[in-house]
Amino acid sequence: MWQLIARRLDNFLYTELILANRFTPGGAAQLRFDLAHTIYPMFALYTDRPETLFPQTRDSCILLNLLRGSAELLRDSLRTSLSGQVLRDHNPLAPLLELGVYSLTPEEAADVLSRRSIPD
Asked: Record's Gene Ontology CC terms (predicted)?
């Protein structure tokens, strides 16, 4: 039962919170803090690694909290991959996997990155 609740909560947080808003660096940091100090501890009663129950939310949080330069490089890499202008040996998932983002497709990752509100 708790796995179903976690799965639905992950989907809700991803679609209704992350994909419905824009995040400043402070907002992204607050999301990371809230997950680590409220949501994950609730499920720590049932598993040693509660963050694995929230793959979309966890991966989105990684992307939203990237440093500006890293986010821009990743965005450019994903844009190139998605536009079809990639080299034959280029794996569009490689940059995401290096960051520990396993559950989002390149398209979804690009969408999450577009939710970053970067002040000038």
From this structure: Dsl1/NZR complex
